[in-house]
Amino acid sequence: MDKPPPHESISSRWSVSSVDKEVTFGDLGDLGSKRIRHGSAGADSEMLSMSQKEIKDEDARLVYINDPERTNETFDFTGNSIKTAKYSVFTFLPRNLFEQFHRVAYVYFLCIAVLNQLPQLAVFGRGASIMPLAFVLLVSAIKDAYEDFRRHRSDRVENNRLALVFEDGEFREKQWKYIRVGEVIKVVSNQTLPCDMVLLATSDPTGVVYVQTTNLDGESNLKTRYAKQETLQKATDLETFDGFIKCEKPNRNIYGFQANMEIDGRRLSLGPSNIILRGCELKNTEWALGVVVYAGSETKAMLNNSGAPSKRSRLETRMNLEIILLSLFLIVLCTTAAATAAVWLRQHRNDLDTILFYRRKDYSVRPEGKNYHYYGWGWEIFFTFFMAVIVYQIMIPISLYISMELVRIGQAYFMTRDDLMYDESSNSSFQCRALNINEDLGQIKYLFSDKTGTLTDNKMEFQCACIGGVDYSDREPAESEQAGYSVEVDGVILKPKMRVRVDPELLKLTRNGKATEEAKRANEFFLSLAACNTIVPIVTNTSDPNVKLVDYQGESPDEQALVYAAAAYGFLLIERTSGHIVINVRGEMQRFNVLGLHEFDSDRKRMSVILGCPDMSVKLYVKGADSSMFGVMDHESYGDVIEATKNQLHAYSSDGLRTLVVGMRKLNDTEFEQWHSSFEAASTALIGRAGLLRKVAGNIETNLRIVGATAIEDKLQRGVPEAIESLRIAGIKVWVLTGDKQETAISIGFSSRLLTRNMRQIVINSNSLASCRRSLEEANDSIASDDDESVALIIDGTSLIYVLDNDLEDVLFQVACKSSAVLCCRVAPFQKAGIVALVKNRTSDMTLAIGDGANDVSMIQMADVGVGISGQEGRQAVMASDFAMGQFRFLVPLLLVHGHWNYQRMGYMILYNFYRNAVFVLILFWYVLFTCYTLTTAITEWSSVLYSVVYTSFPTIVIGILDKNLGRRILLNHPQLYGVGQRGEGYSTTLFWYMMFDTVWQSAVIFFIPLFAYWGSTIDTSSLGDLWTIAAVVVVNLHLAMDVIRWNWIAHAAIWGSIVAACICVIVIDVIPTLPGYWAIFEVAKTWMFWFCLLAIVVTSLLPRFAIKFLVEYYRPSDVRIAREVEKLRTFSESQTMGTEMNQIQDPARR
Q1: How do residues 720-736 score in pLDDT, each as one tens digit?
Q2: pTM (whole model) above 0.70
Q3: Residues designated as active site
Q4: For the P-type ATPase C-terminal domain, which residue ranges apply (predicted)?
Q5: Residues 210/223, Cβ–Cβ less than 8 Å
Q6: Binding site for Mg(2+): which residues?
């Protein structure tokens, strides 16, 4: 908020306004541990006021302008060098290992490797036992090292950039990393700011500067910043510039700044409009001077250089339960091995000295013998248990974590390359910003969506106007529409960049000047639209040198539409500075001095500007939401006009249009002086500045004369109705949370198919806790009495104040769960997050939030999955999201196709990893039962190590990325197939136990067929071990092949190639003379019994699985199986096949 200085044409009665003023917003960054009440009506006020504490000397940063030595004398502030890299050459190894061992599984395998180094417990070779863990750590370390190398390279380029710094009476080039707090720097057009600096002067005589904040928040529209008038002249002689800035300590709030500048004994307040942040680019301004207040890692950009909160997928969390079960199973196996060994040792305690394969004593030392690695019965049991842990260690699959990471990367690659999720209008592809929750996309039950910019285009188009209670909504083309409005200024024709359709009658009124009362009101109306805003007019060239376009840039699409509408009717905003605006009114240039500006805030829900007009009068123009505007109108004098305007607003809202109300009044000398003094005191206050400024605005924005109302159309995005309908058929409950009026929201609800005509609407509009409780309880009872009725719940933000953070949350949740659709109107940003939290805390179902603006960030981060729309309101939502896309309709392929695929693949891959490792462990366990319960193994130690890393890992990764249980078309045409993920059919404890029983059978077949086949023969254990190894690899890969749906050459190469690779590895191991089992594979493979056993193992182990699979799919087929058969036969009938045979979508059990 700025209160600029007077100019030559301003009357003396407002000449006291010689100091810039602004509204400052509080720190939204560091909230500490204070709990935010989602239902609080003043949530935003609370957030703003929390940082409006007094800046005490010990808490403040004191910056002496152009005196870095004195500034850094007491406190050595951070330099401007930045470091985004995590490691150095010396810290990489210890820090990277420390971070990797945060995974409990890695600590487990480290303990196993350490135990194997002890002589008493050594089962495998010391090198072989370390290899799996070392391989996983090495792969992760290489990835981390490469990423950090790129960060180091980027830091080096950034730190060595050059800037102009004032030293020894002139500006000299200096590397960014050497810039210090307190120095004055000069930035020229199109340069990037090297640090956070307070403006001192600009090339514009009024002190205005234009910046682009794309690198900071993603917004491409130009922003205006201002230098204080008191510093403009003094900045011409920087050597004599004497002053200091007392500002708040560094924080993350890029939209707030609170400070004071003392210069020549005067205290000036500084706010967000006086500071430019690192990463911004200077635009349409030749140069700007500023003093550095925050540098390097303390700049707001660097403090915000952290991603969205880390999330873990529901499937990975659920997997921990199965890992615990596997751990318990591992303990049972180890305990069994130790217990049976104890029994055997006790039974044969008198024969241990002479048993050939045991030989407790070593007789080569002395005749009576000496114990050889025997420590007594108790210790032998203890050692046996931990030796079993080492041998069976792969029961917990270490390769699973690496496999999951690789599969997610592959899934993300195909999602980002999906043409169905490419937005041509913004030239943006799908972004996967969080790789660890891909599979959660297949389990969403609740969808929370913003409306403006998410369901709609957020490209506003002026439609209707109500002026003096009269509706002007005739949209027939006028004569001037074809060419559009234009005006000649200094021999150059200026045209608005965007054309607006006009109302012929209203256009005629504006052309008549002030001939009639209706014409006067119309002119006042469009003058207020052109003046009451923060739009920056930018004049751009065209192919014709005599024609230039006026492009209006601003942070609000609504304001842009209103200013373009004013231009279409002859009120062309041409220039805006910190102190005045210039509007061409039907060919006549008129300059208005901006004496004060109260920007929009979420508490007041309106903005106002105080103008010094050419007729020497002072006028206050206000525009805002009707809910806040009608309360500050002069009802006694303009009651009839207000009622007529309300009726028109209701009609506009019912048509789905966004509405604003415009009011004004003249200020006399006394009123202006009182406002000025109050504003002066509030803007320099250090305690509660934002609240005081809101109070000043509220005091002046009273007794307004209603000027009119506007209606803007924000059209639905293409495909939104079809998308919402598909999502609802899929069993996803869609909640729309919007700040619009109830009538507007309901209209959009019908057009988007969120609401239907056969739905009974339950509307909750309550102004007290008691009435809200009564309405919710009545609604709950009415729904319970008629279960077959389709109900839509509509509730406003005022009612939510009494619901959230109250005992009514449970009642609201019950009503909402019974409703087919939920529509929340007039909700504040923190209420959006509160609604998501309400559902998350009461159900185990997955939630997804989607939005496009900064007001959606809290909701996006609260949900299990957050999706940002790359829209017109900047990129704050995208930066806080897990996934980003260009259009709402892309949710359908994202959830119904990729979400379904990701969930099915990941669920199967996890179970398969458990299965393949358990098969191998049980083979080792069966062998213990036939070797006097010792932990010797027939399978070589290298095969044990390579089994889960090389022999069987690659196929699971390939199938996890590429396999598709159903095609895209059938998943899109029949959304109810999405219920597979919601019901948890792809991964469950039931499937886990079924897999374990199958694992026990297959491992027994693999072990016992060769055992009995070769019983009584002279075959050595190494040959049997090679047979068991190859049989296990073949069986688990064929097991995987039985479940592959979509075969391609990569799948063939992965599965059959793994079998070939395993055989080659076994051969290589057996040809190394120094390793056990030399030449064993060649001896056993040349016999017919080897191949007979291999065939018998494959058939016997997989036959029960094949039979059960056939019976289940034939007699009790799942939805996916039915759809797959239909897809294969191409005889799908929606009304007969899917409609009757598919499972109904039902709500899972709630917490």
Answers
A1: 999 999 999 999 999 99
A2: yes
A3: 450
A4: 878-1118
A5: yes
A6: 450, 452, 852, 856
